[in-house]
Design brief:
Helices cover about 75% and strands about 0% of the residues. The protein has 12 helices and no strands. Helix 5 packs across helix 6 and helix 6 packs antiparallel against helix 9. The two termini are about 30 Å apart. The protein has a single domain, classed as MetI-like (MetI-like fold). It is mainly α. This is ABC transporter permease. It is found in: Cell membrane. Belongs to the binding-protein-dependent transport system permease family. CysTW subfamily. It is a multi-pass membrane protein.
């Protein structure tokens, strides 16, 4: 049985990571097409990608949108989770359901709804509208993680802080947030990862200042190239780095 378990895990890992391994391998292809046979090792596609001004600008736009939208989604999600976990309000179950509802809706539907709303309000499409869309999709995630992590231990500490004269903002800043450091970090890094990779909302809600997934899509329109593999490898490297940093700096410290 143990051997079957290890075999199952090995097959699962191969199924998940084989496409990534192929992507990374052919990003070092010396030829002009990322297809077999492998024609030799070369770093010229990474040099081309890192020297591409439009691509680097799109990379900066993605980082800006991911970080800013994730911070906003985290703050709003944490405050909403704290309020609904600590205060009994009429219809609180319905409120939680409404907050989590965007997680069950297609990104395409959300993007079209926001596009219609921004158009009716006369808001010009930009990175700010993309950021607003990413807040919409990441806020339910942040709320769910924070709400699930709030227990009686935090409640007792918050009550003690109030009894000692702390204002509500002091309770949130000095008691609630530090005690939920690991869940807050997990929510933030997951939001950054989802925003970093998101395409549909970024494509529909911007015009000229595009994010990295949109720039990659425009590259793919001209055909396959090891340069697109190099970009994908760099994106994968950033995502893995975020996950590893989260594990080493947050979860291990929490344990």
């Amino acid at each position: 049985m143990r051997a079957l378990g290890w075999l199952y895990m090995a097959l699962a890992y191969v199924f998940i990571f084989l496409p990534v391994a192929v992507l990374v391998a052919f990003s070092f292809q010396d030829g002009r097409l990322p297809v077999p046979p492998f024609q030799g090792f070369s770093l010229r596609w990474y040099e081309k990608v890192l020297g591409d001004r439009d691509l680097m600008e799109a990379l900066g736009n993605s980082l800006l949108v991911a970080v800013v939208s994730s911070v906003i989604a985290l703050v709003l999600g944490f405050l909403a989770a704290h309020a609904l976990a600590r205060v009994r309000l009429p219809g609180s179950v319905l409120m939680r359901g409404v907050l989590i509802a965007p997680m069950t809706v297609s990104y395409l539907i959300i993007a079209l709804g926001l596009l219609t709303m921004f158009g009716a309000a006369g808001v010009k499409l930009s990175l700010w509208t993309v950021g607003a869309g990413h807040v919409v999709i990441n806020l339910p995630l942040c709320f769910a993680i924070c709400f699930a992590a709030m227990g009686d231990q935090q409640r007792s500490a918050e009550r003690a802080a109030r009894d000692l004269g702390a204002a509500e903002w002091q309770v949130l800043l000095h008691v609630s947030a530090p005690m939920l450091a690991a869940p807050l970090a997990a929510a933030f890094f997951l939001s950054v990862t989802f925003s970093w990779d998101e395409f549909i909302i970024a494509f529909l809600l911007t015009r000229f200042d595009v994010t990295l997934p949109v720039e990659i899509w425009s590259m793919l329109r001209s055909g396959l190239s090891p340069a697109t593999n190099a970009v994908g490898s760099l994106v994968f490297l950033v995502s893995v780095t975020l996950v590893v940093a989260l594990e080493l700096l947050v979860f291990r410290r929490a344990k």
